[in-house]
Amino acid sequence: MQQQNFQTQNQQVVFQQPPAVISTKDALYLTDMLSWNLLAMKKANFYAQQVQDQELIHAFNACGQMHQRHYTRILSHLNNQNQASFGSMQQ
Domain of life, per the record (predicted)? Predict the structure, then answer.
């Protein structure tokens, strides 16, 4: 009997869809992710302007573009989540 209770306590609930609400902890982490990507994008742009070597300029620009894509993707996920939440509130 005790072993059966232990097994049910260790089973994790798997959600097919993410919850419609973002917790405060998740929101803070998303804010940090946006900040990290924005800072990395700005630094890559700065370094690309400081160097003379075309290969380095290309590498820094590619790095900055990658972080910009990540920043944009995170924002689009947040906007989609926000629109879905707002749409369900209107119905």
Answer: Bacteria
Q: Is 60 exposed, middle or buried (0-12, 13-18, 19+ CB in 10 A)?
A: buried
- Domains contained in the chain, number: 1
pLDDT per position as a tens digit, 55-75: 999 999 999 999 999 999 999
Q: Please give the C-alpha separations between residue 83 and each of 87, 88, 89, in angstroms, as whole numbers.
A: 6, 9, 10
- 57 Cβ partners below 8 Å, 6+ apart? 48, 51
Angle at the Cα of 24 from the Cα atoms of 22 and 28, rounded to 5 degrees: 100
Please check whether residue 60 lies inside any domain of the structure: yes
The amino acid at 51: V
> Whole-angstrom Cα distance, residue 56 to residue 51?
7
Alpha carbons within 13 A on the beta-carbon side of 60: 16
Sequence-separated (6 or more) residues with CB below 8 Å from residue 44: 60, 61, 63, 64, 67
